[in-house]
């Protein structure tokens, strides 16, 4: 029994609540703003904050403690008498302030928990479709949003992407359905939500430095299935997702639907060659309903098994929400992939230059590598405790060359030497601002007709770039300058 069980609605009395908001990024600011609007007493604690956010907090009369040492923070937190701490999800559970809160039996939420409770601001609560997985969750979330909009449903993608979820809840547009992307960090802290439909798209090693083990990472991802009301969607090609579903609680009334890149069995959605077929939301299990075809996709989109899997997953979630076949086809016609996700930068002289900078782990890079036959691979960066060897071994036959970037190149070079000894290897040693120019210069001297020069680093970017988007932008700019002419 939670001490805060009485706070289950926007219209509850929040005026007696004392809440600490820990972290002042985009989501943290939305939490502070929301709690203040609800009438709670709020204290913001953060290591850093931009001047604009602090000015707004001051104008709203919200107290803040920014950039102070741990002793000062602990003392102020104790004096404040918080009943709740709403943390930025990226902050590790062993953080001193979160440990202090736990020891004092103070509840720890993220913006997801708060949004679930106050989603009825405009009357009827919004329904949630929740998406997680190691890879593909942003694309699937955006696809679900597009499919819902195509059906005339007021919907928005939010959560771990785009619009902070509390901004969506408070938006006068009065969204009927939220397509919510959830990271493993958010799910770690999430207490209780009840999605209309939910999915774990796939599971592979990632963020082990944060979660501590693959087992804990998987357990955290699997929480998304708990309390799902209508439909739990799993990946037929990744048995770990169905195993997580089997361990979920309070899902007895929900339909289990599988998605696949292959011919679907009953209760699955998948592909028969280039046709997307539904055998889950049909009256007769022997029936197969055509939803769309690959020809519906924008011609600039590179079709890959990974994308086909994402489309099948999104269609499963959308069908659970009542979206009709022609509306799914129309959504695919209108859909544009996010930048830096298997994005074609240039096709010239039979060579494709492809930006998949968003491939920040081996599983994501595998999706890109599987899409091409002969690859000049741009790889490396921050590996986040993940071993790249299995990826190199699996795709060795495709690797014409590897151009290794990043500050910590040794694990990548060792994996290539051991598992792909016939691959031509080049190591880039230059200033961060010159990395991609050097990459493109080297690639120009290697790639020939039929090759793909693929930026799919299988690693995070912050050793040499601001983020994965900056890394992708630098690559694309270098290609346009050095190759396109």
Q: Which features does this protein show?
A:
single chain; 485 residues; alpha/beta; Rossmann fold; UDP-N-acetylmuramoyl-L-alanine:D-glutamate ligase; Protein-Tyrosine Phosphatase, Chain A; 3 domains; 9-stranded mixed sheet; 6-stranded mixed sheet; globular
Produce a short descriptive summary:
The strands form three sheets. The protein has a nine-stranded mixed β-sheet with strand order 7-8-6-9-10-11-12-13-14, with helices on both faces. A six-stranded mixed β-sheet has the order 15-16-20-17-18-19, sandwiched between helices. A five-stranded parallel β-sheet has the order 3-2-1-4-5, sandwiched between helices.
How would you characterize this protein structure?
By secondary structure, this protein is an alpha/beta fold. The chain has 3 domains: 18-109, 3-Layer(aba) Sandwich (Rossmann fold); 115-334, Mur-like, catalytic domain (UDP-N-acetylmuramoyl-L-alanine:D-glutamate ligase); 343-480, Mur ligase, C-terminal domain (Protein-Tyrosine Phosphatase, Chain A, Alpha-Beta Complex), CATH 3.90.190.20. The protein has helices at residues 26-38, 51-60, 70-80, 96-103, 111-117, 137-150, 165-169, 184-189, 208-211, 214-222, 239-246, 305-320, 325-334, 362-369, 389-394, 410-419, 435-444, 468-484, and strands at 18-22, 41-46, 63-66, 84-87, 107-109, 127-132, 155-159, 177-181, 197-200, 231-235, 255-259, 268-272, 275-278, 289-293, 343-348, 351-355, 375-379, 399-404, 424-427, 452-455. The strands form 3 sheets. Strands 7-8-6-9-10-11-12-13-14 form a 9-stranded mixed beta sheet, sandwiched between helices. The N and C termini lie far apart (66 Å). 51% of the residues are buried.
């Amino acid at each position: 029994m939670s001490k805060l069980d009485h706070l289950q609605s926007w219209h509850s009395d929040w005026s007696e609540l004392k809440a600490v908001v820990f972290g002042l990024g985009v989501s943290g600011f939305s939490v502070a703003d929301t709690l203040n609007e609800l009438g709670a007493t709020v204290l913001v604690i953060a290591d850093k904050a931009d001047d604009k956010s602090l000015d707004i907090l001051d104008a709203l009369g919200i107290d803040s403690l920014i950039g102070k040492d741990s002793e000062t923070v602990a003392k102020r937190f104790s004096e404040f008498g918080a009943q709740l701490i709403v943390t930025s999800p990226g902050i590790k559970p062993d953080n001193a302030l979160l440990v202090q809160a736990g020891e004092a039996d103070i509840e720890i939420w993220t913006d997801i928990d708060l949004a679930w409770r106050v989603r009825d601001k405009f009357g009827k609560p919004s329904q949630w479709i929740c998406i997680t997985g190691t890879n593909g969750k942003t694309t699937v979330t955006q696809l679900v949003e597009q499919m819902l909009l195509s059906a005339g449903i007021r919907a928005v993608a939010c959560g771990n992407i785009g619009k902070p979820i509390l901004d969506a809840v408070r938006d006068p547009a009065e969204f009927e359905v939220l397509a919510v992307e959830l990271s493993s960090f958010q799910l770690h802290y999430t207490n209780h939500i009840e999605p209309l439909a939910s999915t774990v798209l796939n599971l592979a090693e990632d963020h082990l430095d944060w979660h501590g083990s693959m087992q804990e990472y998987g357990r955290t991802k699997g929480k998304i299935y708990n309390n799902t009301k209508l439909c739990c969607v799993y990946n037929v090609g990744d048995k770990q997702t169905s195993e997580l579903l089997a361990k979920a609680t309070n899902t007895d009334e929900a339909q289990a639907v599988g998605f696949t890149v292959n011919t679907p069995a009953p209760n699955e959605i998948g592909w028969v060659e280039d046709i997307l077929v539904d055998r889950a939301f049909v009256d007769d299990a022997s029936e197969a309903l055509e939803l769309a075809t690959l020809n519906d996709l924008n011609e600039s989109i590179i079709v890959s098994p990974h994308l086909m899997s994402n489309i099948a997953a999104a269609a499963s979630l959308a069908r659970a929400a009542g979206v009709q076949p022609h509306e799914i086809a129309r959504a695919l016609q209108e859909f544009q992939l996010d930048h830096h996700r298997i994005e074609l930068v240039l096709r010239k002289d039979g060579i494709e230059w492809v930006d998949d900078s968003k491939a920040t782990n081996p599983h994501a890079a595998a999706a890109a590598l599987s899409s091409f036959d002969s690859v000049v691979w741009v790889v490396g960066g921050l590996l986040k405790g993940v071993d790249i060897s299995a990826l190199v071994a699996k795709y060795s036959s495709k690797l014409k060359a590897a151009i290794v970037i990043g500050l910590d190149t040794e694990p990548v070079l060792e994996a290539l030497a051991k598992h792909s000894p016939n691959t031509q290897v080049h190591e880039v040693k230059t200033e961060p601002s010159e990395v991609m120019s050097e990459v493109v210069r080297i690639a120009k001297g290697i790639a020939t007709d039929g090759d793909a020069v693929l930026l799919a680093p299988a690693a995070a970017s912050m050793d040499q770039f601001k983020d994965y988007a900056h890394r992708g932008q630098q690559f694309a700019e270098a290609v346009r300058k050095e190759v396109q002419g």
